[in-house]
Amino acid sequence: MSIGSDVIRDVVLVVVLVLAVALLIALVVTRRRLLFARRREESADESAAPQAAVVVHSKKVDDHDARRRQIEVLSGRLGWRAPVWLETTAEDPGRGQTRKAVEDGASVVVAFGGDGTTRAVAESLAQTGVPMGLLPAGTGNLLARNLGVPPNRLESSLHIALTGRNRTIDIGHVELADTLDSPPRKETFLVMSGLGFDAEVMATTAPELKKKIGWVAYVVAGMSRLRGRRTPVTLRVDDGPAVQRRIRAVLVGNVGMLQGGIQLMPAALPDDGWLDVVVVSPRGVTGWVPVVGAVLTRRNHATVEHFRCKTVEIQADRPMFAQLDGDPAGKAQSLRARVDPLALVVRVPG
Protein backbone atom coordinates (compact mmCIF):
# COMPACT_ATOMS: atom_id res chain seq x y z
CA MET A 1 0.00 0.00 0.00
CA SER A 2 1.32 3.40 -0.97
CA ILE A 3 1.89 6.33 1.31
CA GLY A 4 -0.92 8.23 -0.42
CA SER A 5 -3.41 5.46 0.38
CA ASP A 6 -2.40 5.52 4.03
CA VAL A 7 -2.96 9.26 4.19
CA ILE A 8 -6.38 8.97 2.57
CA ARG A 9 -7.33 6.21 4.98
CA ASP A 10 -6.25 8.28 7.98
CA VAL A 11 -8.16 11.30 6.74
CA VAL A 12 -11.31 9.20 6.27
CA LEU A 13 -10.98 7.78 9.77
CA VAL A 14 -10.55 11.24 11.26
CA VAL A 15 -13.60 12.52 9.36
CA VAL A 16 -15.68 9.55 10.50
CA LEU A 17 -14.52 10.05 14.08
CA VAL A 18 -15.32 13.76 13.99
CA LEU A 19 -18.77 13.06 12.52
CA ALA A 20 -19.43 10.44 15.20
CA VAL A 21 -18.40 12.82 17.97
CA ALA A 22 -20.52 15.60 16.43
CA LEU A 23 -23.49 13.27 16.17
CA LEU A 24 -23.05 12.18 19.78
CA ILE A 25 -22.83 15.80 20.93
CA ALA A 26 -25.94 16.64 18.90
CA LEU A 27 -27.84 13.75 20.46
CA VAL A 28 -26.83 14.80 23.98
CA VAL A 29 -27.76 18.44 23.35
CA THR A 30 -31.09 17.46 21.79
CA ARG A 31 -31.92 15.17 24.70
CA ARG A 32 -31.09 17.88 27.21
CA ARG A 33 -33.25 20.34 25.33
CA LEU A 34 -36.14 17.88 25.28
CA LEU A 35 -35.77 17.18 28.99
CA PHE A 36 -35.61 20.90 29.74
CA ALA A 37 -38.67 21.56 27.59
CA ARG A 38 -40.55 18.71 29.25
CA ARG A 39 -39.67 19.97 32.72
CA ARG A 40 -40.70 23.48 31.72
CA GLU A 41 -44.03 22.14 30.42
CA GLU A 42 -44.57 20.12 33.58
CA SER A 43 -43.75 23.18 35.66
CA ALA A 44 -46.14 25.27 33.61
CA ASP A 45 -48.85 22.62 33.93
CA GLU A 46 -48.33 22.46 37.68
CA SER A 47 -48.51 26.23 38.09
CA ALA A 48 -51.64 26.29 35.92
CA ALA A 49 -53.37 23.65 38.04
CA PRO A 50 -56.04 25.04 40.39
CA GLN A 51 -55.31 25.42 44.09
CA ALA A 52 -57.69 25.40 47.03
CA ALA A 53 -57.31 27.01 50.43
CA VAL A 54 -58.45 24.99 53.44
CA VAL A 55 -59.60 26.96 56.47
CA VAL A 56 -59.43 24.40 59.27
CA HIS A 57 -60.68 24.42 62.85
CA SER A 58 -57.97 22.19 64.27
CA LYS A 59 -59.86 21.50 67.51
CA LYS A 60 -62.80 20.11 65.53
CA VAL A 61 -60.57 17.85 63.41
CA ASP A 62 -58.91 14.81 64.97
CA ASP A 63 -55.27 14.24 63.91
CA HIS A 64 -55.41 17.18 61.52
CA ASP A 65 -51.79 16.65 60.38
CA ALA A 66 -52.78 13.26 58.97
CA ARG A 67 -55.93 14.80 57.46
CA ARG A 68 -53.77 17.46 55.83
CA ARG A 69 -51.54 14.86 54.20
CA GLN A 70 -54.63 12.95 53.06
CA ILE A 71 -56.12 16.09 51.51
CA GLU A 72 -52.87 16.85 49.68
CA VAL A 73 -52.76 13.35 48.18
CA LEU A 74 -56.42 13.43 47.17
CA SER A 75 -56.02 16.90 45.66
CA GLY A 76 -53.11 15.68 43.54
CA ARG A 77 -55.17 12.77 42.24
CA LEU A 78 -57.85 15.23 41.13
CA GLY A 79 -55.33 17.41 39.29
CA TRP A 80 -55.08 20.12 41.95
CA ARG A 81 -51.99 21.51 43.63
CA ALA A 82 -51.48 20.92 47.34
CA PRO A 83 -53.87 23.32 49.09
CA VAL A 84 -52.92 26.28 51.22
CA TRP A 85 -53.56 25.32 54.86
CA LEU A 86 -54.98 28.10 57.08
CA GLU A 87 -55.82 27.37 60.72
CA THR A 88 -58.41 29.30 62.69
CA THR A 89 -57.54 30.94 65.99
CA ALA A 90 -59.42 31.94 69.11
CA GLU A 91 -59.28 35.55 67.88
CA ASP A 92 -60.27 34.78 64.27
CA PRO A 93 -62.58 31.83 63.56
CA GLY A 94 -61.94 32.00 59.80
CA ARG A 95 -62.90 35.41 58.42
CA GLY A 96 -59.39 36.83 58.05
CA GLN A 97 -57.99 33.55 56.74
CA THR A 98 -60.69 33.48 54.07
CA ARG A 99 -60.02 37.06 52.99
CA LYS A 100 -56.33 36.22 52.59
CA ALA A 101 -57.18 33.13 50.53
CA VAL A 102 -59.35 35.22 48.20
CA GLU A 103 -56.65 37.88 47.84
CA ASP A 104 -54.08 35.18 47.00
CA GLY A 105 -56.30 33.82 44.22
CA ALA A 106 -57.63 30.56 45.66
CA SER A 107 -59.88 28.71 43.20
CA VAL A 108 -62.08 27.52 46.07
CA VAL A 109 -62.01 28.08 49.84
CA VAL A 110 -62.84 24.95 51.82
CA ALA A 111 -64.32 25.20 55.32
CA PHE A 112 -63.00 22.25 57.36
CA GLY A 113 -64.83 22.17 60.69
CA GLY A 114 -68.29 22.66 62.11
CA ASP A 115 -71.12 25.06 61.31
CA GLY A 116 -69.29 27.91 63.07
CA THR A 117 -66.27 27.58 60.79
CA THR A 118 -68.56 27.35 57.77
CA ARG A 119 -70.38 30.52 58.83
CA ALA A 120 -67.13 32.48 59.28
CA VAL A 121 -65.78 31.40 55.88
CA ALA A 122 -69.09 32.18 54.17
CA GLU A 123 -69.24 35.66 55.67
CA SER A 124 -65.96 36.60 53.98
CA LEU A 125 -66.83 34.85 50.70
CA ALA A 126 -70.23 36.53 50.31
CA GLN A 127 -70.53 38.51 47.06
CA THR A 128 -66.97 37.55 45.95
CA GLY A 129 -68.00 34.81 43.50
CA VAL A 130 -65.30 32.50 44.91
CA PRO A 131 -66.96 29.15 45.72
CA MET A 132 -66.96 27.60 49.17
CA GLY A 133 -66.32 23.89 49.65
CA LEU A 134 -67.46 21.97 52.73
CA LEU A 135 -65.51 19.41 54.72
CA PRO A 136 -68.05 18.99 57.55
CA ALA A 137 -66.42 17.77 60.75
CA GLY A 138 -68.66 19.13 63.52
CA THR A 139 -71.66 17.81 65.43
CA GLY A 140 -74.50 19.42 63.49
CA ASN A 141 -73.14 20.09 59.98
CA LEU A 142 -76.61 21.37 59.08
CA LEU A 143 -75.69 23.34 55.97
CA ALA A 144 -73.83 20.34 54.56
CA ARG A 145 -76.75 18.02 55.30
CA ASN A 146 -79.22 20.38 53.63
CA LEU A 147 -77.03 20.63 50.51
CA GLY A 148 -76.31 16.90 50.22
CA VAL A 149 -72.65 16.97 51.30
CA PRO A 150 -71.90 13.89 53.47
CA PRO A 151 -70.64 14.77 56.97
CA ASN A 152 -67.44 13.20 58.29
CA ARG A 153 -66.59 11.51 54.96
CA LEU A 154 -63.42 13.31 53.95
CA GLU A 155 -62.77 11.79 50.54
CA SER A 156 -66.34 12.17 49.29
CA SER A 157 -66.77 15.72 50.56
CA LEU A 158 -63.36 16.82 49.20
CA HIS A 159 -64.26 15.42 45.78
CA ILE A 160 -67.41 17.57 45.88
CA ALA A 161 -65.49 20.62 47.11
CA LEU A 162 -62.99 20.45 44.25
CA THR A 163 -65.03 19.07 41.35
CA GLY A 164 -68.69 19.53 42.34
CA ARG A 165 -71.33 21.80 40.86
CA ASN A 166 -71.52 25.47 41.85
CA ARG A 167 -74.81 26.41 43.52
CA THR A 168 -75.54 30.01 44.48
CA ILE A 169 -77.49 30.31 47.74
CA ASP A 170 -78.92 33.00 50.01
CA ILE A 171 -77.40 33.99 53.31
CA GLY A 172 -79.02 35.66 56.31
CA HIS A 173 -77.82 38.73 58.17
CA VAL A 174 -78.89 39.15 61.76
CA GLU A 175 -78.57 41.81 64.44
CA LEU A 176 -78.74 40.62 68.05
CA ALA A 177 -79.07 43.10 70.91
CA ASP A 178 -78.51 42.09 74.53
CA THR A 179 -81.21 44.57 75.62
CA LEU A 180 -83.59 46.84 73.76
CA ASP A 181 -81.25 49.79 74.42
CA SER A 182 -77.88 48.14 73.71
CA PRO A 183 -76.07 48.32 70.34
CA PRO A 184 -76.64 45.19 68.21
CA ARG A 185 -74.10 42.55 67.29
CA LYS A 186 -74.07 41.95 63.54
CA GLU A 187 -73.69 38.34 62.44
CA THR A 188 -74.29 36.08 59.43
CA PHE A 189 -76.15 32.78 59.35
CA LEU A 190 -76.58 30.09 56.70
CA VAL A 191 -78.92 27.65 58.44
CA MET A 192 -81.00 29.16 61.26
CA SER A 193 -80.89 31.85 63.88
CA GLY A 194 -83.22 31.88 66.83
CA LEU A 195 -84.24 32.77 70.36
CA GLY A 196 -85.56 30.56 73.12
CA PHE A 197 -85.76 26.84 73.78
CA ASP A 198 -83.49 25.54 71.00
CA ALA A 199 -80.79 28.09 71.82
CA GLU A 200 -81.02 27.24 75.52
CA VAL A 201 -80.57 23.54 74.74
CA MET A 202 -77.52 24.25 72.57
CA ALA A 203 -75.98 26.50 75.21
CA THR A 204 -76.40 23.99 78.03
CA THR A 205 -75.48 20.72 76.28
CA ALA A 206 -72.27 19.29 77.73
CA PRO A 207 -69.40 19.29 75.18
CA GLU A 208 -68.23 15.90 76.47
CA LEU A 209 -71.65 14.42 75.76
CA LYS A 210 -71.70 15.89 72.25
CA LYS A 211 -68.32 14.33 71.56
CA LYS A 212 -69.54 10.92 72.74
CA ILE A 213 -72.98 10.66 71.14
CA GLY A 214 -73.08 13.53 68.60
CA TRP A 215 -76.29 15.47 67.97
CA VAL A 216 -78.30 13.04 70.15
CA ALA A 217 -76.80 14.97 73.07
CA TYR A 218 -79.13 17.85 72.16
CA VAL A 219 -82.13 15.55 72.52
CA VAL A 220 -80.95 14.44 75.95
CA ALA A 221 -80.46 18.04 77.07
CA GLY A 222 -83.77 19.13 75.58
CA MET A 223 -85.78 16.53 77.50
CA SER A 224 -84.82 18.17 80.78
CA ARG A 225 -85.92 21.61 79.59
CA LEU A 226 -89.37 20.89 78.20
CA ARG A 227 -90.96 22.50 81.27
CA GLY A 228 -90.54 26.26 81.14
CA ARG A 229 -92.47 29.48 80.96
CA ARG A 230 -93.41 31.19 77.74
CA THR A 231 -92.04 34.64 76.95
CA PRO A 232 -94.13 37.50 75.51
CA VAL A 233 -92.67 38.81 72.23
CA THR A 234 -93.58 41.34 69.57
CA LEU A 235 -93.12 40.01 66.03
CA ARG A 236 -93.06 42.09 62.85
CA VAL A 237 -92.70 40.42 59.42
CA ASP A 238 -91.63 42.69 56.52
CA ASP A 239 -93.84 45.80 56.58
CA GLY A 240 -96.76 44.02 58.23
CA PRO A 241 -98.34 44.93 61.54
CA ALA A 242 -96.72 43.99 64.81
CA VAL A 243 -98.26 40.90 66.42
CA GLN A 244 -98.04 39.68 70.00
CA ARG A 245 -97.21 36.11 70.93
CA ARG A 246 -96.19 34.13 74.02
CA ILE A 247 -93.48 31.77 72.84
CA ARG A 248 -90.98 29.12 73.86
CA ALA A 249 -88.91 29.55 70.70
CA VAL A 250 -88.72 31.46 67.44
CA LEU A 251 -86.44 30.38 64.58
CA VAL A 252 -85.50 32.21 61.39
CA GLY A 253 -84.26 29.82 58.72
CA ASN A 254 -82.50 29.83 55.39
CA VAL A 255 -82.85 26.03 55.11
CA GLY A 256 -85.39 23.79 56.77
CA MET A 257 -83.92 20.39 57.69
CA LEU A 258 -82.68 19.52 61.16
CA GLN A 259 -80.62 16.54 62.29
CA GLY A 260 -82.20 13.21 61.58
CA GLY A 261 -83.83 14.51 58.41
CA ILE A 262 -86.59 16.35 60.33
CA GLN A 263 -88.10 19.11 58.19
CA LEU A 264 -88.82 21.99 60.54
CA MET A 265 -89.44 24.36 57.62
CA PRO A 266 -90.64 22.23 54.69
CA ALA A 267 -90.98 25.16 52.28
CA ALA A 268 -87.51 26.58 52.94
CA LEU A 269 -85.02 26.51 50.07
CA PRO A 270 -81.50 27.93 50.33
CA ASP A 271 -81.81 29.82 47.03
CA ASP A 272 -85.41 31.09 47.00
CA GLY A 273 -84.70 34.61 48.26
CA TRP A 274 -86.88 34.16 51.38
CA LEU A 275 -86.47 33.60 55.09
CA ASP A 276 -88.78 31.12 56.82
CA VAL A 277 -89.89 31.83 60.39
CA VAL A 278 -91.29 29.29 62.86
CA VAL A 279 -92.89 30.38 66.13
CA VAL A 280 -93.34 27.63 68.73
CA SER A 281 -95.75 28.28 71.63
CA PRO A 282 -96.55 25.13 73.67
CA ARG A 283 -98.06 25.25 77.17
CA GLY A 284 -96.20 23.08 79.66
CA VAL A 285 -94.66 19.68 78.99
CA THR A 286 -97.76 18.16 77.37
CA GLY A 287 -97.94 21.09 74.97
CA TRP A 288 -94.89 19.76 73.16
CA VAL A 289 -96.82 16.69 71.96
CA PRO A 290 -98.82 18.59 69.29
CA VAL A 291 -95.67 20.54 68.39
CA VAL A 292 -93.81 17.33 67.60
CA GLY A 293 -96.84 15.99 65.75
CA ALA A 294 -97.16 19.16 63.65
CA VAL A 295 -93.48 19.06 62.71
CA LEU A 296 -93.42 15.36 61.84
CA THR A 297 -96.68 15.40 59.87
CA ARG A 298 -96.10 18.88 58.39
CA ARG A 299 -99.60 19.93 59.41
CA ASN A 300 -100.69 23.22 60.90
CA HIS A 301 -101.34 23.57 64.61
CA ALA A 302 -102.04 26.54 66.83
CA THR A 303 -98.76 26.02 68.70
CA VAL A 304 -96.60 26.09 65.51
CA GLU A 305 -96.88 29.11 63.19
CA HIS A 306 -95.02 29.61 59.92
CA PHE A 307 -94.18 32.87 58.15
CA ARG A 308 -92.19 33.73 55.01
CA CYS A 309 -90.48 37.09 54.71
CA LYS A 310 -87.56 39.17 53.53
CA THR A 311 -87.06 40.77 56.94
CA VAL A 312 -88.24 39.96 60.45
CA GLU A 313 -87.94 41.70 63.80
CA ILE A 314 -88.52 40.08 67.20
CA GLN A 315 -88.52 41.92 70.54
CA ALA A 316 -88.87 39.95 73.74
CA ASP A 317 -89.96 41.08 77.19
CA ARG A 318 -86.73 39.68 78.61
CA PRO A 319 -83.36 38.49 77.27
CA MET A 320 -83.51 34.96 75.85
CA PHE A 321 -80.86 32.45 74.81
CA ALA A 322 -79.78 33.01 71.19
CA GLN A 323 -78.14 30.75 68.62
CA LEU A 324 -76.56 31.05 65.18
CA ASP A 325 -76.39 27.92 63.02
CA GLY A 326 -76.47 25.77 66.14
CA ASP A 327 -73.77 27.69 68.01
CA PRO A 328 -74.72 29.48 71.24
CA ALA A 329 -74.70 33.27 70.82
CA GLY A 330 -75.26 34.42 74.39
CA LYS A 331 -78.55 36.09 75.26
CA ALA A 332 -80.51 38.68 73.31
CA GLN A 333 -83.69 40.63 73.84
CA SER A 334 -84.14 41.57 70.18
CA LEU A 335 -83.38 39.93 66.86
CA ARG A 336 -83.55 41.50 63.42
CA ALA A 337 -82.86 39.38 60.35
CA ARG A 338 -82.86 39.96 56.61
CA VAL A 339 -82.10 37.79 53.60
CA ASP A 340 -79.21 38.48 51.21
CA PRO A 341 -80.36 36.67 48.05
CA LEU A 342 -77.90 34.56 46.06
CA ALA A 343 -74.90 35.98 47.87
CA LEU A 344 -72.76 32.84 48.21
CA VAL A 345 -71.47 30.20 45.80
CA VAL A 346 -71.20 26.71 47.33
CA ARG A 347 -69.91 23.45 45.83
CA VAL A 348 -72.58 20.75 45.94
CA PRO A 349 -72.86 17.23 44.49
CA GLY A 350 -73.34 17.36 40.76
UniProtKB/TrEMBL annotation:
Its cofactor is Mg(2+). Gene3D superfamilies: 2.60.200.40, Probable inorganic polyphosphate/atp-NAD kinase, domain 1. Keywords: ATP-binding, Kinase, Lipid biosynthesis, Lipid metabolism, Membrane, Nucleotide-binding, Phospholipid biosynthesis, Phospholipid metabolism, Transferase, Transmembrane, Transmembrane helix. InterPro entries: ATP-NAD_kinase_N, Diacylglycerol_kinase_cat_dom, Lipid_Phosphate_FormReg, NAD/diacylglycerol_kinase_sf, YegS/DAGK_C. The keyword Kinase applies. It comes from the Bacteria. Residues 47-178 form the DAGKc domain. One of its GO terms (biological process) is phospholipid biosynthetic process. One of its GO terms (molecular function) is kinase activity. Belongs to the diacylglycerol/lipid kinase family. This is Diacylglycerol kinase family lipid kinase. The lineage of its organism: Bacteria, Bacillati, Actinomycetota, Actinomycetes, Kineosporiales.
